[in-house]
Amino acid sequence: MNKTLNQKAWLFVIPVFVLVAFNAAIPLMTVVNYSFQETFGSNVFAWEGTRWFKEILHSERFHASLGRQVIFTFIILLIQLPLGIGIALTMPKKGWGVPVCLILMSMPLLIPWNVVGAMWNIFALPEIGFLGNSLNSLGFDYNFTQQSGDAWFTTILMDVWHWTSLVVLLSYAGLNSIQPAYYQAAEIDGASRWDIFRYIELPKMKKVLTLAILLRFMDSFMIYTEPFVLTGGGPGNATNFLSLDLVKMALGQFDLGPAAAMSLIYFLIVLLICWIFYTIMMKDEGRS
Amino acid sequence: MSLELKDVEKKVGIDTHIHSTNLKLEKNTINILLGSTLAGKTTLMQIMAGLDKPTTGEIWFNGENVTGKEVQKRNCSMVYQQFINYPNFTVFENIASPLKITGVKSDEIKERVGKVAELLKLSAMLNKKPDELSGGQQQRTALARALVKDSDLILLDEPLANLDFKLREELREELPKLFEDRDCIVVYATTEPQDALMIGGNTATLLEGKVIQYGKTLDVYNKPENLTSARVFSDPPMNIAEINKNGETFKINNNNVQWKSNLKIKDGKYKIGIRPHNITTYKEGNNSVEINGKVLISELSGSESLIHFTNGKLNWVSLSNGIQSKNIGEETKLYMNIDEFLYFDQNNRLVNHG
Questions:
Q1: Mutant choice from B81, B88, B156 vs A, greatest count of A C-beta within 10 A
Q2: Cis status, amide bond into B236, omega within 30 of 0
Q3: pLDDT band at residue A176, thresholds of 50, 70 and 90?
Q4: E strand or H helix at B344, and its extent?
Q5: How far is A11 from A96, CA to CA, in rounded Å?
Q6: Mind listing the domains of chain B with CATH numbers?
Q7: Which of A115, A227, B50, B113 is least buried, going by the fewest C-beta atoms within 10 A?
Q8: Four-residue CA torsion sign, B186, B192, B198, B204
Q9: Could B51 and A188 be called an inter-chain contact, meaning their C-beta atoms sit closer than 8 Å?
Q10: Which pLDDT band holds residue A285 (cuts at 50, 70, 90)?
């Protein structure tokens, strides 16, 4: 038996290797390179070992922005998931209302992120913005450029406006895939509206909701553009989330070593949380 | 106990889904709704259950008008073609669900679920979830959920259609037994005449939203009121031809096939309906007539042979026992059992057997 050796297949894999190398492996390795060394520019490097990692892990500044980030993401998920499911449940299932609702829902998703930031910045300005002006004339002391509470409120409101649609669209798709017979069977059993939601709709939406939570977690945990344009991390450091802080450290202060170490830690945190979450959510699926 | 539909009609927009229907189903009967897809079987069942309201007409249950009564307040259960169970409940919880909602005590739930589970051979799977079961077991679970409740009305909407052949045969045999000593009305929708014949009970033939005929299953089969009912209740499709009667001689139009019969009907034009299993490759019964056929297709179905053949303008199907292999294009001789012929007048009404 003489098997002919054919290595041509490798040719077809080369483009993928090149692409992945350029968009993931090489940049990542550059960051790794920076994170273990001190650089003084003009390509002079000095070995530092794990010094930057230790420094970041013990830095109060990192703890503070990580804390802000966790709270922000938590609030975002807490609002957007129930709200998104709720909206999806009330959306029409047939007729002319369907395309209208779907288009309305997709609109915020189609707007470039920095435009969203700029829009909300103008919208919320205390003197001239519609939101800011209205709130102030209603007697609220609202100024998102000076009061941290207001800055948080505005940032969260902006993110809810921008991203709830994604949860809505995913939930809507999930709901539409449930056969009408399920609803009828439950009605015949005498199930209430809540029972139907709890025992049919929710389990049947499990997969799309897992996806929605993952996507919303990652995106909100890495949020950068919108708060950068809206608040720039201020007032003070009130809305200085992880990405904003990272960019300030890397490009503002030019602390390349610590910034590289921070981005690796940041990356690992996102990866770890996603993995844990996915494993837990998919545990039941594995059995069958 | 009885369920009565009085002049029930269902329209959606300009389409009429159910034409004015009168139907009375009695206690302790299995009633089969037989018709092809879109004949209105499911709509009719949904109206019976109260999942859907008729556009006009009334539904009476036990002498009470229940037309607008919500489904939750009626005592009925339904099994679907798709295997519908609560996805994250175990089999036990699934079967128990209708009882839990109505507030039955947990001891009693255990006992009743246990009984039904045994009846449907699910005892070993009570702790599994639906997606760990085979299709047959999933459908058994759905059936158990329908049976555990002691409903007055049990609706089965093509419950066997999504099962594979063997499971279907098995469950079809068990079904009539499950309902034997139950105080309820069972309605069973199917597209397959075979189902109706095996289950027995009463049959209503349906076509395009109309109930064509309702009566004891064998009566409907043997004495279809008209050609439409006969066609609905025949699979493979019934063979039909225009014939002419002259004295005792019957002759297929534009064809030389003829036979004699002492059937007492006026001379003139008629239509004849012959079920495929009454045309065979061997003689059956005492009176048979020969017909020549050119084989179009010959196929085996289990231990039966289906032969599609042409004779002049006729394009017919015959069904014989055993394996009868024929070549395509082969000229063959077939025998038709005269005693089983169904004669219809020009208005398509049955004229013999009655």
A1: B88
A2: yes
A3: very high
A4: strand B342-344
A5: 51
A6: 2-225 (3.40.50.300), 239-344 (2.40.50.140)
A7: A115
A8: positive
A9: yes
A10: low
C-alpha torsion A150→A156→A161→A163, nearest 10: 160
Phi, psi of B183 (to 5 degrees): -90, 75
What does the pLDDT read at residue B64? 85
Task: Give yes or no for a contact between B58 and B6, defined as CB atoms under 8 angstroms apart.
Answer: yes
Q: Please, which pLDDT band fits residue A68 given cuts at 50, 70 and 90?
A: very high
Burial class (CB in 10 A: 0-12, 13-18, 19+), A223: buried
Token pair belonging to B299: 């196929």
For residue B281 the two structure tokens come to 């490759």
How many CB atoms are located within 10 Å of the residue A91 CB?
Answer: 20
Quickly tell me which residue has 């005892």 as its tokens: B123
pLDDT > 60? residue A1: no
Kindly give the pairing relationship between strand B239-246 and strand B268-274.
antiparallel
Which phi-psi region, left, alpha or beta, contains residue B340 (left: φ > 0; alpha: ψ -120 to 50)? alpha
pLDDT, position A171: 95
Half-sphere exposure of B76 (CA within 13 A, CB side): 28
Give all domains of chain A, ordered by start, each with its CATH number: 25-38+45-287 (1.10.3720.10)
pLDDT given for residue A288 in this prediction: 42
Which residue from B275, B313, B319 is spatially nearest to B297, judged by alpha carbons? Answer: B319
Chain B residues whose beta carbon lies within 8 Å of the beta carbon of residue A177 = none
Mean local confidence (pLDDT), B163-170: 82
Contact A187 B72 (CB under 8 A): yes
Tell which wins on pLDDT, A250 or B305. B305
CB of B207 less than 8 A from some CB of A: no
When pLDDT is averaged across residues B193-217 and rounded to a whole number, the result is: 90
Omega into B176 within 30° of 0, i.e. cis?
no
**Which pLDDT does position B71 carry in this prediction?**
82
Mutating which of A177, A179, A189 best tests the B interface, going by the most B Cβ atoms within 10 A?
A189
Sign of CA dihedral B202, B206, B211, B213: negative
A203 and B49: CB-CB below 8 Å? no
Residues in B touching A200 (Cβ below 8 Å): 86-87
Q: Which residues 199-228 on chain A approach chain B with CB closer than 8 angstroms? A: 199-200, 203-204
Q: What is the pLDDT of residues B80-106, one digit of tens each?
A: 988 889 888 999 999 998 888 888 898
pLDDT digits (tens, 9 = 90+) for A177-193: 998 889 988 888 888 88
CA distance B116 to B272: 48
**A240 vs A234: CA distance, rounded Å:** 7
User: Which H/E stretch holds residue B210?
Assistant: strand B210-216
Searching chain A, which residue's CA lies closest to the CA of residue B75?
A188
CB atoms within 10 A of CB B324: 18
Nearest residue to A207 via CA among A102, A281, A288 = A281
Better-predicted residue by pLDDT, B14 or B353: B14
Instruction: Give the pLDDT score at A167.
Output: 96
Mean pLDDT of chain B, nearest integer = 88
Which pLDDT value is given to residue B352?
79
Would you give the DSSP letter of residue A124?
H
3 state DSSP class of B214: strand
In whole numbers, what is the pLDDT of chain A averaged over residues? 88
Contacts of B88 in chain A (CB under 8 A): 199, 203
Of B78, B88, B102, the CB nearest to A190: B102
